[in-house]
């Protein structure tokens, strides 16, 4: 008999950390020590709890030691329940699923990563790797990240660390600064950062993730600056039930976002309706 | 033309005797008339079968792709939760008198949930346990357009299928008798010990004549050349808004009755004492308002967008996904639409608009 691809595995919650008022990172390890979670940056797991359900959640960290992390914003029944699980507790995962960022195409190329809001989450394991690799070939990495307000920007410590690495530049922006917050950086939408004087290097490859409307403007700006559409990668969010190309919920034209995506070359998704791209 | 597979001539009463024998060994599911509809029901006797049916309400592919299937079971004891697999409940079955469009419906569904990286265990198990006896079609309904796709009215090799992929035996009703084409070894075994004569040239000629006659009676046609691209060029054609917003009730009938629709939802149901939770897949539909809703919005909030998803999936996107159309021309979605929305008519209107514009362009240019 074919084993059901929908059967989840138990993962122990090792540590939980607060990222913002509604977002937490769960560091996990599979309870079955013979099972492995060999994920690539950009892929996702279906993460769930029995009796509540499952939600697609990307990897925010992938350790070589069997530990992996999911950073989750509580927006509905499943995600709120997941961020309520304490260390020592169990969540269930199945995956890894989907496509990943084009790691094999990064070497030697100037890369710009454009993230909005929680869109930084799937980029984090990749950026971490890229920074660790220190870009020995002299190529540059530009990270542009925008959030609604300073308290909503995730992974500030990582961003600071990346900014001090050679060949890496990090630029942050927020829409608004509530009373009591200190902010000397730029304000406004993330696409505005593309025009920052020191940001003006022409990227050869772009990685974009965030609210779909933000991605639309970001992609448009990148193309206006002469990038080839096929060098622009976007990571999409859709409703997902199965994660394995069966349930149909995530479909965008002929694409199963769960199986052919979530990371796509822009021309792969551009022609189809019911998107904001 | 002789059949591609060994064929025999079988008297009708002998076929009827076979049905009784098959029903002794496995569950035989066949078209049975109930009021104004025909449904797939277990039978034990050939007299229960509606041999002259035009179409059934639900397709036979969905006798195999069950509407509600448990996929995982969770049992709690204290803080611990044990996760268990649910074995498919498939049992030896036989689908009897399946029309060619519906045989193709099964082949198309095979490609979506059985023939790719991940396999749906329940469907695969039912498929493996079920023998299929096809029945070439003599009743061309008002809404049938299988001939446009090459999926009917008679069954023939299609795309990359093996001869036995679609059915094990194929019946054609001749004058008085039946022509039986043997498509597989299990099909051969179904006939073991039965009085039959080798089919003659005259039998084949009669079969071909019947096929030609059926073919000539199609009123409904869909031009499929370049159809996927045609629809992609016309995603903002006024027909989507007019028919979607003006007539679609979002009732989801079209997708429920379509032989190839595979979409499902996953739902957890727990016992009152919360000790047991069962996770099940349940048919779902892109016509449901919330099908593509996420926490920040709904990618298909309008009926226009949802109707366009159904029609473009069947007649355009499917080709990119699975290398075939998602429609086999069975006509069910049209017949069971409360407002008579017709995907072939929508595609036809779009083609007529383009042709008219082309002509106008040529006249002006
Ligand atoms: C590939 C991928 C990766 C992702 N990675 C992350 C990540 O790393 N971190 C993260 O925080 N999020 C991530 N998400 C988003 C996350 O999956 C969603 O926020 C999550 O699925 C919401 O599920 P929920 O059960 O918590 O919310 P739900 O209870 O499903 O509800 C959320 C909202 O969805 C809508 N909704 C849901 N069901 C219905 C219904 N039946 N009727 C009407 N409206 C409905 C409503 O607007 C509701 O308020 C990712 C999504 C994808 C596709
Ligand atoms: S789309 Fe309609 S006509 Fe085509 S196979 Fe499905 S139900 Fe039949
Ligand atoms: S998306 Fe709609 S048309 Fe396509 S298979 Fe699913 S329910 Fe059927
Ligand atoms: S999430 Fe089920 S098909 Fe993509």
Structure description:
- The complex is a heterodimer of chains A (about 280) and B (about 375).
- Chain A is an alpha/beta fold and about 280 residues long.
- Helices cover about 15% and strands about 30% of the residues of chain A.
- Chain A has 5 helices and 15 strands.
- The radius of gyration of chain A is 18 Å and the shape is globular.
- In chain A, about 50% of the residues are buried.
- Chain B is of the alpha+beta class and about 375 residues long.
- Chain B has 2 domains: about 180 residues, no CATH class; about 140 residues, no CATH class.
- Chain B is about 40% helix and about 20% strand.
- In chain B, the strands form 3 sheets. Chain B has an 8-stranded mixed sheet with strand order 3-2-6-7-8-9-1-10, sandwiched between helices.
- The longest helix of chain B has 22 residues.
- The mean pLDDT of chain B is about 95.
- Chains A and B meet through loops of A and β4, β5, α4, β11 and β12 of B.
Q: How many runs of DSSP E, i.e. beta strands of chain A?
A: 15
- Based on CA inertia axes, which overall geometry of chain A fits? globular
- Sheet/helix structural class of chain A: alpha/beta
The count of domains of chain B is 2
- Overall 3D form of chain B: flat
Provide the low-confidence segments of chain A as ranges.
none
The major β-sheet of chain B equals: 8 strands, mixed
How far the N terminus sits from the C terminus of chain A, by CA atoms, comes to 42 Å
The amount of helix of chain B comes to 25-40%
Largest interface: A-B, 41 and 55 residues
Largest sheet of chain A: 7 strands, antiparallel
Q: Taking all residues together, what is the mean pLDDT of chain A?
A: 94
Write down the Rg of chain B. 23 Å
Q: What is the beta-strand fraction of chain B?
A: 15-25%
According to DSSP, the number of beta strands of chain B is 14
Bin the strand percentage of chain A: 25-35%
Give the terminus-to-terminus CA distance of chain B. 49 Å
Structural class of chain B: alpha+beta
């Amino acid at each position: 008999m074919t084993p059901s691809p929908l059967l989840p595995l138990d993962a122990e919650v090792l540590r939980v950390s607060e990222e913002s008022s509604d977002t937490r990172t769960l560091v996990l390890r599979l309870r079955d020590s013979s099972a492995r979670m060999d994920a690539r940056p950009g892929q996702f797991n279906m993460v769930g709890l029995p009796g509540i359900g499952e939600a697609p959640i990307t990897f925010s960290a992938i350790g070589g030691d069997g530990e992996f992390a999911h950073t989750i914003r509580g927006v509905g029944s499943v995600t709120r329940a997941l961020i309520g699980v304490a260390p020592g507790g169990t969540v269930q995962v199945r995956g890894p699923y989907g496509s990943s960022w084009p790691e094999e195409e990064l070497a030697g190329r100037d890369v710009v990563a454009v993230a909005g809001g929680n869109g930084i989450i799937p980029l984090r394991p990749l950026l971490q790797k890229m920074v660790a690799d220190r870009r020995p070939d002299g190529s540059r990495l530009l990270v542009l990240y925008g959030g609604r307000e300073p308290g909503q920007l995730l992974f500030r410590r990582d961003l600071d660390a990346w900014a001090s690495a050679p060949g890496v530049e990090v630029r942050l922006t927020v829409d608004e600064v509530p009373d009591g917050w200190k902010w000397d950086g730029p304000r406004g939408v993330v696409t505005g950062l593309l025009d920052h004087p020191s940001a003006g290097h022409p990227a050869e490859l772009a990685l974009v993730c965030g609210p779909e409307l933000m991605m639309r403007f970001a992609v448009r700006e990148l193309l206006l600056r002469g990038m080839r559409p096929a060098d622009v990668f976007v990571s999409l969010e859709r409703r997902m039930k199965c994660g394995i190309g069966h349930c149909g919920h995530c479909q965008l034209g002929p694409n199963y976002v769960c199986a052919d995506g979530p990371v796509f070359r822009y021309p792969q998704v551009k022609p189809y309706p019911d998107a904001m791209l | 033309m002789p059949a591609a597979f060994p064929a025999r001539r079988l008297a009708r009463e002998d076929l009827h005797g076979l049905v009784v024998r098959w029903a002794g060994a496995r569950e035989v599911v066949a078209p049975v008339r109930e009021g104004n509809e025909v449904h797939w029901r277990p039978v034990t006797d050939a007299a229960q079968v509606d041999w002259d049916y035009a179409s059934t309400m639900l397709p036979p592919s969905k006798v195999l792709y069950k509407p509600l299937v448990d996929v995982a079971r969770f049992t709690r004891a204290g803080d611990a939760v044990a996760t268990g697999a649910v074995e498919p409940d498939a049992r030896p079955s036989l689908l009897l008198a399946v029309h060619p469009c519906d045989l193709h419906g099964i082949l198309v569904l095979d490609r979506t949930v059985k023939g790719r990286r991940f396999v749906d265990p329940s469907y695969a198990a039912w498929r493996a346990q079920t023998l299929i006896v096809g029945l070439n079609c003599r009743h061309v309904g008002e809404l049938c357009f299988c001939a446009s796709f090459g999926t009917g009215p008679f069954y023939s090799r299609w795309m990359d299928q093996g001869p036995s992929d679609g059915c094990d035996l194929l019946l054609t009703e001749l004058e008085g008798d039946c022509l039986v084409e043997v498509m597989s070894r299990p099909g051969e075994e179904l006939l073991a010990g039965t009085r039959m004569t080798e089919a003659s040239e005259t039998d084949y000629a009669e079969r071909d004549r019947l096929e030609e006659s059926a073919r000539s009676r199609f009123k409904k046609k869909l031009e499929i050349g370049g159809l996927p691209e045609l629809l992609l060029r016309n995603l903002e054609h006024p027909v989507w808004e007019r028919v979607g917003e003006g007539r679609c009730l979002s009732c989801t009938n079209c997708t429920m009755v379509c032989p190839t629709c595979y979409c499902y939802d996953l739902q957890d149901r727990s016992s009152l004492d919360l000790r047991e939770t069962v996770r099940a897949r349940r048919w779902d539909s892109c016509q449901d308002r919330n099908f593509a809703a996420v926490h920040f919005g709904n990618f298909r909030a309008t009926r226009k967008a949802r109707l366009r998803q159904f029609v473009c999936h069947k007649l355009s996107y499917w080709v990119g996904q699975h290398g075939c159309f998602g429609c086999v021309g069975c006509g069910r979605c049209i017949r069971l639409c409360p407002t008579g929305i017709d995907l072939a008519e929508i595609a036809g209107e779009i083609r007529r608009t383009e042709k008219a514009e082309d002509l106008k362009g040529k006249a002006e240019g």
